[in-house]
Amino acid sequence: SLIGRLMFELPEEMGLIAVAVRQTQGKGRGGNVWLSPVGCALSTLHISIPLHSNLGQRIPFIQHLVSLAVVEAVRSIPGYEDIELRVKWPNDIYYSDLMKLGGVLVNSTLIETTFHILIGFGFNVNNSNPTICINDLIAQFNKEEGTELKPLSADCLIARTVTVLERLIEIFQEKGPNGVLPQYYKYWVHSGKQVRLRGEDGPVAWIVGIDDYGYLQVHQEGKGVESVHPDGNSFDMLRNLIVPK
């Protein structure tokens, strides 16, 4: 991709963002295709993170910070705090725990002592298909609550997401995971949820939180707490399967 080539030719401190109106070759996790109709906010952002920093030592956290930034971009606007936009570990943006309306993909390259991170994120703002979009949620909220919140634009939300992300990275670099986790947990869909480990008839465990490196922590009766990673695709909450690492 163009931005992948450009990122090594620009001055160090200069961030770079590409915004697509339409995307025809979007990529998802594990080689999945990400379809991007008009009305979807799509961008790729380049950031640099020093290896010897809080975040440089915990690169998997970046996808969580980006997911949180998307949710915050909407829910930090006065009046929009109760729009049911949430994060789903490890890299999805959800309407409540019901329906996906966005995702995040992070690629990192270590050059000497700097991580060059390409962050791709996409979320449905103004397209009701193929799933649901943020402006649908706002319209639904207006109907239920008698409010008159205005629809939001993709450009505005991309700009807000990047601004919030910069702030979250600053906090993380200063305070580590504990600086951002309370906010992340406030918006995540997993509180008190049960999952099965390894397979549909595997042992039941309860989701506890995420560990210092961004992996999911689960508590299994009589076994204590262990960290797990996604099963190659997204952590599948419908089937609730995860794999201990």
From TrEMBL:
SUPFAM superfamilies documented for this protein: Class II aaRS and biotin synthetases
| Keywords on record | Ligase
**PROSITE patterns xrefs:** BPL_LPL_CATALYTIC
One example of the protein's molecular function in GO is: biotin--[biotin carboxyl-carrier protein] ligase activity
State any GO CC term.
cytoplasm
Q: Which residues form the BPL/LPL catalytic domain?
A: 1-173
Pfam families registered for this protein in UniProt? BPL_C, BPL_LplA_LipB
Q: Which parts pass through the membrane?
A: none
Q: Where is the signal peptide?
A: none
The UniProt similarity line reads: Belongs to the biotin--protein ligase family.
Q: By what name is this protein known? A: BPL1 ligase
Q: Which organism is it from?
A: Pomatorhinus ruficollis
Recorded name of the encoding gene = Hlcs_1
